[in-house]
UniProtKB/TrEMBL annotation:
Residues 3-91 form the ABM domain. Keywords: Monooxygenase, Oxidoreductase. This is Antibiotic biosynthesis monooxygenase. The keyword Protein biosynthesis does not apply. GO terms for molecular function: monooxygenase activity. It comes from Sulfurimonas paralvinellae.
Length: 95
């Protein structure tokens, strides 16, 4: 069963560029991982502090592999000083 998530980040005031840099660095290596079906990060045009990651993984094991990757560890240890709020939604694909 595939797993799809939407992760929303709100950057702290003045930290938009650093947040964008950290999140953008996740895209290419995540897409190259085994089991990654979809992985994109968006920045809202009407609110430059707001970012959204949408990701789909083949299954729980491939998502766990992503969370154990070196690039995930860099992101995980670096984003908090620049992020005001983060929340995750599990999504069900219809169709």
């Amino acid at each position: 069963m595939t797993i799809t998530k939407r992760v929303t980040f709100i950057a702290k005031e003045g930290c938009e560029a650093k947040m964008k840099e950290l999140l953008a660095a996740m895209v290419k290596p995540s897409k190259a991982e085994q089991g990654c079906i979809f992985y994109e990060i968006f920045q809202y045009e009407n609110n430059r502090r707001k970012f959204m990651a949408v990701e789909t993984w083949e299954n729980e094991a491939t998502l766990d592999g992503h969370k154990a990757s070196a690039h995930y560890a860099v992101y995980k240890s670096s984003y908090e000083p620049y992020c005001e709020k983060k929340y995750t939604d599990e999504l069900e694909v219809l169709g």
